[in-house]
Design goal:
It is a single chain. With 30 residues, this protein is mostly helical. The chain is 93% helix and 0% strand. The protein has 1 helix and no strands. The protein is rod-shaped and about 45 Å long.
């Protein structure tokens, strides 16, 4: 149970970092 939660937490961090990088890229395009 805890390992599954840990795995989901890692996936969330990766997704958030990808979104953050994408937002920074769009800021650079302006």
């Amino acid at each position: 149970m805890y390992s599954i939660f840990n795995f989901n937490h890692i996936i969330l961090n990766v997704i958030l970092s990808k979104i953050h990088n994408r937002l920074e890229d769009t800021e650079n395009f302006k």
